[in-house]
Amino acid sequence: MKILIDNGHGANTPGKCSPDFKLREYAWARQVAKLLYQRAEAAGLEPVLITPEYTDISLRERCRRVNELCDRYGADNCLLISLHLNAAGADGKWHTSRGFSSWVARNASAKSKLLARLLWENADMAGLRGNRSVPPEHYLTANFAICRGTKCAAVLTENLFQDNPEDVAFLLSDEGKECIADVHLASILSYINIVK
Ligand SMILES: [Zn+2]
């Protein structure tokens, strides 16, 4: 199984940081993408970083890269995770919202929904619920291009809030990054066990 990892924004994407600038979404996502890559490889999977660049790659290009791999290896032999951090505001201030969520496109396949549900359940078990209310289906839907425009199972994870001080402290710690990489790997392994 090809594990396609999208680390979201680039260093030149405006905003996307904690109010104290200590946490930057592009840098965090690259660190966790690397941890997930290493874990997936050690587990015998075939990880691919679809955006190794540090600059922002357009969503159109990211979808093109994913779909090219889907065409080459078969969409059923690929899955996509897009790593992100959530934000409650865009005002450069701290907010109270905390916790993990996983998202699929409005036109998502059953496989995408399954992967999103496993991610949220594993995040919940790892204590990452925060103060969110968890929907019964364990995923949320939105019009995210990276999920909508790709052919394989595709989930975007919002890994806690970059404008909440407790979440930021956890996200900046080695423990936090490892925990979130572990949540993703455990979910991917469960997904593969169910669909194969
Ligand atoms: Zn993001």
What's this, in brief?
With 196 residues, the chain is of the alpha/beta class. It is built from six helices and six strands, in the order βαβαββαβαβαα. The longest helix is centred in the C-terminal third of the chain and has 22 residues, at 174-195.
Notable features of this structure?
196 residues, alpha/beta, 6-stranded mixed β-sheet, 42% helix, 17% strand, globular, binds zinc ion
Characterize the main sheet.
6 strands, mixed
Q: Give the C-alpha Rg.
A: 15 Å
Structural class: alpha/beta
Mean pLDDT: 97
Q: Classify the beta-strand content into a percent band.
A: 15-25%
CATH class: Alpha Beta
Write out the CATH superfamily name.
Zn-dependent exopeptidases
| Count of strand segments | 6
Give the count of structural domains: 1
Helix content: 40-55%
Low-pLDDT runs of 5+ residues are: none
Bound molecules: zinc ion
How many helical stretches?
6
Strand order of the largest sheet: 2-1-3-6-4-5
Q: What name is given to the CATH topology? A: Aminopeptidase
User: What's the N-to-C terminus distance?
Assistant: 10 Å
Notes on the structure:
This protein has 196 residues and is α/β, with parallel strands linked by helices. The chain has one domain: Aminopeptidase, CATH 3.40.630. Helix content is 42%, strand content 17%. The protein contains six helices and six strands. The protein has a six-stranded mixed beta sheet, with helices on both faces. Helix 1 links the parallel strand 1 and strand 2. Helix 3 packs across helix 6 and helix 5 crosses helix 6. The longest helix is centred in the last third of the chain and has 22 residues. The chain is globular and about 45 Å long. The termini are close together. Zinc ion (ZN) binds next to loops.
